[in-house]
Design a protein that fits this description.
It comes from Hipposideros armiger. This protein is mainly alpha-helical. Helix content is 67%, strand content 3%. The longest helix is centred in the N-terminal third of the chain and has 51 residues, at 41-91.
């Protein structure tokens, strides 16, 4: 920018110098002409004076014209500034500020342009104000609301116009919502009146139900009165429904306790729905009849309640002490007071169970998973499962592996839920008289102790059996009863590595499954059938265990609660 200004200044100086040079050339040329003509010196001076005067007058005239232009521009700037200030005030905008130091001509142009823009904005705002006022008047008449307070004479600001637009939009939404509310409320009122067998008996009710919807005034007062009417009708309807539902529940409970036959129940089935006056009256008559029967069958009713109590005790995992805490359960004097105590207790238990149903169902799920886990543990120690008929062994192992993963996860989820419940209710959540965590821990401990006890019993049994075999020898087994060995029919003897032992020596050795000590059988015994047992040997020289010993030593084949696999048997010797 500075570089451009310097170039302009240099150009101006050059033009000035050229003008002076041109003037000098002109005067020199004039003097030459005058000299050739022979004009005297004094006249030449006069003529030079005339030239000077003409040039001066021309320059003065040009200066005057430019001064006049400057004055007009300054006057226009002043006028534009005043009008612009007024417009900025009316339009509620910041006063116009020219950036930098513009020339008079540029300033006048900018101000004139800004004034035209402000005039256009003022006109548009006035038109927008008029349009919004018309819409506001129409909506306010429909909604019975006061008009929007705004000065029509002044020019509104952008913020005021925006607020006015929002107000008009809000009025439209209010009109739409009130109309929708009126239509929906009217429909509900009609339904309630039909349910209650009620006919419109006031002018307002008739206006709502019978008149055209467009004729209804959507004022706040009318809407409030409409809601009040609906509330009154719904309260009456709710009261009737609550009474009828209570009567139905009472009837159903009395039916169950009194063991009313289905044929007799079907006689009043038509009044088991609805809440009209005639239905309510019929239900009350049935309750009165059943109450009279209940008083005549007091013992039967109390025993039915006790059955239900026992069911809720099981669902809530009550301990024996908690159950014994309700002494009337064991009272044999069947009186009305005893019945009331049982009724109060069953209501309390029912509410208690429903309040914590999610937790009780979670504990029940854990109990079922735990029982299934114990069943799998029991089956794991059963040698007969190796028969694997129909792939049951594989299915059980998959289910058992899945259960071993899901059971701890379920325990953790229940612990988190129960901790939250205990923090909320500031009391422990009890299962069978114990906190859940303690209860689960006790179950696992009992399972561990039971496994340890079974293990010790098996070890003691094996020890006694070994001692017996040391003294008397092992009991003979019929070859065709052996598991995993081929029958002894000639030609069907199974051969392994082309070696077959067809006879048993009298001094055959017996090696314990988990020991290396060798014992001698004192007596050689043959099977009762008189046939010779067939034994097969492997290429490694190790003998396959006899089928009889497999059944006798099945307890020795369990390690940490699981049956050893067939690969474990391969390394054992007899």
């Amino acid at each position: 920018m500075v570089h451009m200004c310097s170039e302009v200044e240099v150009l101006g100086e050059v033009l000035a110098e050229e003008s002076i040079l041109c003037l000098q050339k002109a005067l020199t040329h004039l003097r030459e002409i005058w000299e050739l003509i022979g004009i005297p010196e004094d006249q030449r001076l006069q003529r030079t004076e005339v030239v000077k005067k003409h040039i001066k007058d021309l320059l003065d005239m040009m200066i005057a014209e430019e001064e006049s232009l400057k004055e007009r521009l300054i006057k226009s700037i002043s006028i534009c500034q005043k009008e612009l200030s007024t417009l900025c005030s009316e339009l509620h905008v910041e006063p116009f500020q020219e950036e930098g130091e513009p020339t008079i001509l540029q300033l006048e142009k900018d101000l004139r342009t800004q004034v035209e823009l402000m005039r256009k904005q003022k006109k548009e705002r006035k038109q927008e104000l008029k349009r919004l006022q018309d819409q506001d008047q129409e909506l306010c008449e429909v909604l019975c609301m006061p008009h929007y307070d705004i000065d029509s004479a002044s020019v509104p600001s952008l913020e005021e116009l925006n607020q006015f637009r929002q107000h008009v939009a809000s009025l439209r939404e209010t009109k739409a919502s009130r109309r929708e509310e009126f239509v929906n409320t009217k429909r509900q009122i009609i339904l309630c009146m039909e349910e209650l067998d009620h006919t419109p008996d006031t002018s307002f009710e008739r206006d709502v139900v019978c008149e055209d919807e467009d004729a209804f005034c959507l004022s706040l007062e009318n809407i409030a009165t409409l809601q009040k009417l609906l509330l009154q009708l719904e309260m009456r309807k709710s009261q009737n429904e609550a009474v009828c539902e209570g009567l139905r529940a009472q009837i159903q409970e009395l039916w169950d306790r009194l063991q009313i036959p289905a044929e007799e129940r079907e006689a009043v089935a038509m009044v088991m729905t609805g809440s009209k006056a005639k239905v309510k009256k019929a239900l009350q008559l049935e309750v009165d009849r059943l109450e009279e029967l209940k008083m005549q069958n007091m013992k039967k009713v109390i025993e039915a309640i006790r059955v239900e109590l026992a069911q809720y005790w099981d669902r809530c995992f009550y301990s024996q002490e908690q159950r014994q805490g309700f002494a009337p359960y064991y009272d044999e004097d069947y009186t009305e007071n005893l019945l009331q105590l049982h009724d109060a207790e069953i209501v309390r238990l029912r509410n208690y169970y429903e309040s914590h149903k999610e937790l009780f169902e979670g504990v029940q799920k854990w109990e079922e998973s735990w029982r299934l886990f114990l069943e799998f543990e029991r089956k794991a120690s059963d040698p007969s499962r190796f028969t694997n008929r129909g792939g049951n062994l594989l299915k059980e192992e998959k289910q058992r592996a899945k259960l071993q993963k899901t059971l701890p996860k379920l325990e953790e989820e229940l612990k988190v839920q129960i901790e939250m419940w205990e923090q909320e209710h500031t009391k422990p959540f009890v299962v069978n008289g114990q906190k859940f965590v303690e209860y689960v821990t006790a179950q696992w401990e009992m399972h561990r102790l039971e496994k340890e006890r079974a293990k010790q019993e098996r070890q003691l049994k094996n020890k006694k059996q070994t001692e017996t075999e040391m003294l008397y020898g092992s009991a003979p087994r019929t070859p065709n009863k052996r598991r995993g060995l081929a029958p002894t029919t000639p030609g069907k003897v199974r051969k392994l590595n082309t070696t077959t032992i067809s006879n048993a020596t009298a001094n055959s050795t017996i090696r314990p499954v988990f020991g290396g000590t060798v014992y001698r059988s004192p007596v050689s015994r043959l099977p009762p059938s008189g046939s010779k047992p067939v034994l097969t040997s492997t290429c490694s020289g190790k003998r396959t265990p006899r089928a009889g010993r497999h059944g006798a030593n099945k307890e020795n084949l369990e390690l940490n609660g699981s049956i050893l696999s067939a690969r474990t048997f391969k390394g054992l010797q007899i």
